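$ run holo --ligand "NAP" --emit tokens
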Amino acid sequence: MRVLLQFPGRGVAAWREALAAALPEATIETWPDLRTATSDRAVDRPDYALVWKPPPELFTAAPPARAVFNLGAGVDALVAVPTLPRDVPVIRLEDAGMAAPMAEYVVLAVLAAHRESRAYAAAQREARWTPQPRRAPKDFGVGLLGLGVLGRAAAAALSPFGFPLHGWSRSPRAVPGVTCHAGAAELPAFLARSRMLVCLLPSTAETRGLLDRARLALLPVGAEVVNAGRGDLIVDADLLALLDDGHLGGATLDVFRDEPLPPMHPFWHHPRVTITPHVSAVTDIESSVAQVAAKIRRLERGEPVSGVVDVARGY
Ligand SMILES: NC(=O)c1ccc[n+]([C@@H]2O[C@H](COP(=O)([O-])OP(=O)(O)OC[C@H]3O[C@@H](n4cnc5c(N)ncnc54)[C@H](OP(=O)(O)O)[C@@H]3O)[C@@H](O)[C@H]2O)c1
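-- output --
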């Protein structure tokens, strides 16, 4: 079995080492070394390609015969590659060590907002002793935009705190402890109940720019937004406008339209914006490789695997 591995930068060595240990029966080649070694000669088709943000020429020169594995949960960069093969399944990472850290990130942001951490930080800078009234968790609705692997993990982690949990997905879902909403028609009611809005959606043709001024204005006054899905879900200028006119209380942002976030971007210095550099759930190489190796073995036995991407839908 031949496996082609591509990962930008020096990280490829760690992926290769883990893959060799998890799948000793495979011959592993790496990109772009394969291209360099073969120059203009035709390359034998690998069985599997494991990729992250691959260059289009990879699929032209060495199209995999059995499957493409995306070395991340979000496939927006991969499905945008015009040469992505259409005759083999595209398979993404599911959880693979990301759900627990993402749930931590969400719980941290939700509890910080519920316990007024922005107001207390501002008061401390001015040496002001100003206790805020206690807010009952039952009055602090949390809306999870996206009820996939990560959204459901965040819901489970939030369940002990007593916040009313709401969720929104494309198709109807049943998640224990979560009032579920689905589709465009149910989005306004969902937003109206979300004192805290947590975005864990993929970036697709349907979701890009979803959180514009009109939709963000449907959130209750004082609401906070967390975005750990993809930066282009939010219209930056609209978020800033609603923060500045006092409708929104704050934003915690892990993902951005341009990464790294440009130094002049107004998010950096906004007093009610908290920024992290796309670290809410970093890919864990060992768990990811174990998951990919298990799926390759299933495919080799002719068994179905989960996590197959609907390329036309975009996730
Ligand atoms: N910041 C980070 O470090 C980090 C790390 C990993 C992933 N991510 C991002 O998180 C995203 C979610 O990951 P996941 O593993 O939870 O994905 P997932 O399991 O595919 O879940 C996606 C969820 O979004 C919903 N959705 C998609 N399009 C929609 C639409 N048009 N309208 C309403 N709901 C829609 C889906 O609805 P259905 O349930 O109906 O399918 C599903 O509930 C990834 O795509 C990636 O962009 C970020």
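-- notes --
The chain is about 30% helix and 15% strand.
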